[in-house]
Amino acid sequence: xxxxxxxxxxxxxDSKVVEMCGVTFFDGQEVELNSEEHEHLMSKLPNNxxxxxxxxxxxxxxxxxxxxxxxADKAAAEAARAxxxxxxxxxxxxxxxxx
Length: 99
What we know:
The protein is α+β, with helices and mostly antiparallel strands. It contains two helices and five strands; from the N terminus they run ββββαβα.
């Protein structure tokens, strides 16, 4: 998922508020967009003279992977589990026999 920050720069004599594709832009105020919800705007606004478009860093996908885990994912999970068990000490309560 890509993130971008967009600022609307109203031309002289024009409206200070613009609404595009369900997003409201106010003159001079920065709005954060992402490629999942606003893919069309992410492709359109960099070429618009009235908007300042600053592309941010790619973010990892928030959606979980579908299907069965790969062998590499299984091996990584098993290694993490083994490392956790090696570091953690489990204390079991002592049970006294009842006479």
